[in-house]
Structure formats: C-alpha cells, structure tokens
Amino acid sequence: MLEIIVFIYTLYFFLRTYTSIMQIGYINDEKRKTPVLMSASKYLVAGNYAVAKEKLGLIESFVDYLFFLWWVIAGFALLQGMITIENQIIEAIVFLFGFTAIGYIIGLPFELYQTFKIDEAFGFNKTTPKIYIIDALKSMLMFFLFGGLIFGALAWIIVSYESWWLWGFGMLFTLALLVNVLYPTVIAPIFNTFNPIEEGELKDAITSMMQSVGLKSDGIFVMDASKRDSRLNAYFGGLGKTKRVVLFDTLLAKLNKNELLAVLGHELGHFKHGDIWKNIILMGILLFVSFFLLGNLPNDLFSSMNVIPEAGVQIAMMTLLLPVVSFMFTPVMSFVSRHNEYAADEFGSDMGGKDNLVSALMKLVTENKAFPKSHPLVIFFYYTHPPIIERLKELGFDASNTIVGEEDELKKDGIFAFIDEEKKV
C-alpha cells in the first residue's frame, strides 16, 4: 500500500512540476512579444515577476516531495518513537506540534525569500523584519492555542468513534463556518488596523449600492495594507451580522471614485449571486471526500511505515495527502469560480459602469504586476479568475487595441537584476 501512495504522490508531483515548467517557458516566450494592457517595460517586469515566483515554487515543490518521502519512509516512525506519553490525546497533540514545527521550518526559507527577496525586488514588499517577526509570533501563539484545541478534539474523535472520519468532517466544516464568521471582526484585526471609512460622498455611494442589493453589513472599513504590501485589493468578509466591506488603503490611493464603485459592484455581484455559499458548499464536498478517502486508509499502510496508527499519525498522514485530493478537485472548483467571476463582472459593470470596471481592472493588473497571459494548463488547474484579457473581452474591450506607453521603469525597486537573469533563460 505504501508503494501505491508514493506512486500517486509522485504522479501529483510530476504533474505540478510539468505545469510549472510549461508556465515558465510560456511566459518567457510571451514577455518578449508585443505587450498588451501595459507598457513594454511593465510588461517585461510582470513577466519576470511571474517567472521568479514560479521558479521558487518549483524548488519548494521539490523540497516538499523529498520531505514527503522522508516522512513516510522514516520520519513518522522517528517522531513517534521520540514521544512516550501514555495519554493518547496529549500524545497526538505533541506529535502534531512536532510534525507542524518541522513543516514550518522547511517552508520558512521559501517564505522569507518570496517576501524579502522577490517581492522586495519588484517593489511589493513593505514588511519590515520587525513586523514580520511580530506577525509570526502572533500566528504561532494563535496556532499553539487554537491548533492545540483542534488537534485535541480531532484526536478525541478518532479515539472515541469507529466512523471518526464522518464526525471529524462535521467538526472541521463547522469550524470553517465559524472562522468565516469571526475572521473580519476577531481574527483579521489581530494583524491589521481597520478604520471606518470617512464620512462623505464615497461612503454614501457605497452604502447606497449595498442597500440596492439588500446587503446589511457591519460597516465599511479601510485596512492598512500598505504597511506590508503595495498590491491593491478589496473584499467582502464575514457571514451574517459580521459581514463588512474592506478596502485596502492601497486601492483607495490608486483608483478614483467611479472605479472603486465598479470594483465594489463586482464584489456585490458575488453577494447577490450567493457565490460565498456556493464556495462553502464546494469546500464542504471537498472536505467530505477528503475525510472519507484519507480517513479510511488501511492499517497495513501504517505497518509498512513502521508506525502504530494512532491519532496523531493518522491526522498527519491526512495532512500530507490532502493536497493530492485537493489537486484532483482543483479544475472543477476553478471552473466554477471563473464562471462566477464573469457573472460578477457583468453585475459590476451594470452597477458601476462598464468603462469604469475596465479602467479599474487595467489599473489592478498594472499596479499588481500581474502578467496578463498564462499557459492553458495553468489556467485549467489554478485560475480561479479568468485571464484578464478574457475578462476585458467579455466587457467589450479589445486588449489588442490598447495604446501602450513608452515609460521605462526597469531600474526601479531593484528589478533590473531579475530582468538580466531572465534574459539568460
């Protein structure tokens, strides 16, 4: 059985690797062609940023694969042998803390390189080492408190019930709903400051739009996103009475009032079409299937790994294999999400004006240095939003007719080194 699991994971790894390699080659080719939606210099920068991220992801994926092999061949047995606690629940918690800590240490260099090397070079990162460390300590504390409770509850279910996978699914799905309720008002403020939007014409216009679709919210807030990142965004968060509109301060700085209203009209389209609940249902189906498949792994699999199938080992094994199950569902979920985005664009263009939404999307793709093209495989598997060119086409805008400026910003933000490196590819 272990050989079958390793074979399946290896197929998953090679498919992801192949997709990434195709994406790198595709973008390296396209970025040298006639630019669309942005100036020639920004087009090249966006392509180089996409390639830099993809290359880092390739290396991280390979390291993850090596550690997967280590875990199932020797790691689980080694960690289980180091823990000699009689209480099964506490033993599972300690085992899972150890498993998670090792995973965190493995992933930390990649996160640091992405934040302080790539994002820094391309002008995105505004996070200081102090902010990063404080965020990390807050996350660790939250994980220690709430992660320990979740691990303990799931371990108790495994110990107590033969059909533990069904009860475990119910617990985690309920928890996911609770997190959606608490995130805007309890979790997010731990890391960012949210100030009510100033009284005035913009707030009145947003309030009027919300009332027109029957959205009752906790308020309209501006988030201090700029202290960590320069990218633009906005979202509706929460469920029930905790729903709130959140605008990144970076978005307010770059978009005019009409463009902002068109973007918010798009988000209101998601609310009007019930996309939040559609996503929750899809997530529930994925979680149910994952628990069914991974919660019924045969005991001989654990025997071949030289471990006892105790609660901690079973939960850790589920964690390792969950990305494989998720990957199989990804094309379906991405397809549904892309369909929802087209519908939300149509709704947003009706509410805020088609020209305003087109203008906003073009600013978003430029400011976020989002390369407007991708390999079809990447779109098929990963794109939750349609390619920007296709979104604009649906809105009646032909990107091929875009007038591109000649400004040259290659030397800004340390980008030049990455461009020189990519020219060698």
Overview of the structural elements:
This protein is mainly alpha-helical. The chain has one domain. It has 15 helices and four strands. A four-stranded mixed sheet has the order 1-2-4-3. A hairpin with a 6-residue loop joins strand 3 and strand 4. The longest helix is centred in the first third of the chain and has 43 residues. The radius of gyration is 23 Å and the shape is globular.
Number of helices: 15
Strand order of the largest sheet: 1-2-4-3
What does the main sheet amount to? 4 strands, mixed
Distance between the termini: 41 Å
Spans of at least 5 consecutive residues with low confidence: 403-425
Indicate the mean pLDDT: 87
| Content of β-strand | under 5%
- The secondary-structure class comes to mainly alpha
Number of strands: 4
Order of helices and strands: HHHHHEHEEEHHHHHHHHH
Write down the domain tally. Answer: 1
| Rg result | 23 Å
